[in-house]
């Protein structure tokens, strides 16, 4: 009789509470993509290829404003730079995996999958197979729920009238993501500086018209936020900062 591996069961159990919060986020991503002018197929394709909530919303927002593709691409890359740090941190645990499994795990990497997996690996000494089973259970659950919710959002978005003003959905979701994330000095610095630069990029008058050319405000805000967060982290060497980071 087939039995589900213990670490698969553990991974699904650990990620279940997080999946509840993923549902509205995925729905909004799908609705916003359609509202920005993407076809249902393009919206679903974007979700499957990118698979990064914050980046997807930033991409959709920029596409809705006819930003240059280069700006859209660079903005998504800057927002996802943290994935490089996650990869470097978790890579030692995946060193013995075959190339195919490494490709799958890298594609499925998210904030939640990284955080849960690193915490689990520190609890017990797990074999390579157990580490892989746990990670894939967490990451695949997140991927599945995200894609299903995005599809439902796309289907919902095709039937929502313009008078509903869904353009507000994207900034509202970003605020919902931002507020809980501001838990220490570096994240607060990143939020304030990044948000300030992004807003300034939209209201500054250049050549007689408001807004930076090529919709560069969001990209510059993302870069400024990252730099501010790094700078605040490197300057925070006191006891208070150490306590903040630990939380």
UniProtKB/TrEMBL annotation:
<keyword id="KW-1133">Transmembrane helix</keyword>
<keyword id="KW-0813">Transport</keyword>
<protein>
    <submittedName>
        <fullName>4-azaleucine resistance probable transporter AzlC</fullName>
    </submittedName>
</protein>
<dbReference type="InterPro" id="IPR011606">
    <property type="entry name" value="Brnchd-chn_aa_trnsp_permease"/>
</dbReference>
<feature type="transmembrane region" description="Helical">
    <location>
        <begin position="189"/>
        <end position="208"/>
    </location>
</feature>
<feature type="transmembrane region" description="Helical">
    <location>
        <begin position="134"/>
        <end position="157"/>
    </location>
</feature>
<dbReference type="GO" id="GO:0005886">
    <property type="term" value="C:plasma membrane"/>
</dbReference>
<dbReference type="Pfam" id="PF03591">
    <property type="entry name" value="AzlC"/>
</dbReference>
<feature type="transmembrane region" description="Helical">
    <location>
        <begin position="163"/>
        <end position="182"/>
    </location>
</feature>
<dbReference type="GO" id="GO:1903785">
    <property type="term" value="P:L-valine transmembrane transport"/>
</dbReference>
<feature type="transmembrane region" description="Helical">
    <location>
        <begin position="214"/>
        <end position="232"/>
    </location>
</feature>
<feature type="transmembrane region" description="Helical">
    <location>
        <begin position="40"/>
        <end position="63"/>
    </location>
</feature>
<comment type="similarity">
    <text>Belongs to the AzlC family.</text>
</comment>
<keyword id="KW-0472">Membrane</keyword>
<keyword id="KW-0812">Transmembrane</keyword>
<feature type="transmembrane region" description="Helical">
    <location>
        <begin position="12"/>
        <end position="34"/>
    </location>
</feature>
<keyword id="KW-1003">Cell membrane</keyword>
<feature type="transmembrane region" description="Helical">
    <location>
        <begin position="70"/>
        <end position="91"/>
    </location>
</feature>
């Amino acid at each position: 009789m087939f039995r589900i591996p213990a670490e698969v069961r553990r991974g699904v159990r650990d990620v279940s509470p997080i999946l509840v919060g993923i549902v509205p986020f995925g729905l909004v991503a799908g609705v916003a993509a359609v509202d920005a002018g993407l076809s249902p197929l393009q919206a679903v394709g974007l979700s499957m290829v990118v698979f990064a909530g914050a980046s997807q919303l930033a991409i959709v927002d920029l596409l809705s404003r006819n930003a240059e593709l280069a700006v859209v691409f660079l903005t998504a890359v800057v927002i996802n730079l943290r994935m490089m740090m996650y990869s470097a941190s978790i890579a030692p645990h995946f060193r013995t995996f075959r190339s195919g499994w490494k490709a799958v795990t890298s594609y499925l990497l998210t904030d939640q999958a990284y955080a849960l997996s690193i915490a689990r690996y520190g609890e017990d000494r797990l074999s390579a197979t157990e580490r892989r089973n746990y990670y894939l259970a967490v990451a695949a659950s997140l991927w599945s729920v995200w894609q299903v919710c995005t599809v439902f959002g796309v289907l919902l978005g095709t039937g929502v009238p313009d008078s509903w003003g869904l353009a507000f959905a994207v900034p509202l979701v970003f605020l919902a993501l931002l507020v809980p994330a501001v838990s220490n000095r570096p994240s607060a610095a990143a939020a304030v500086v990044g948000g300030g630069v992004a807003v300034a990029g939209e209201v500054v008058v250049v050549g007689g018209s408001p807004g930076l050319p090529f919709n560069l405000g969001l990209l510059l805000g993302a870069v400024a936020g990252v730099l501010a967060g790094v700078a605040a982290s490197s300057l925070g060497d006191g006891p208070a900062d150490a306590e903040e980071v630990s939380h």
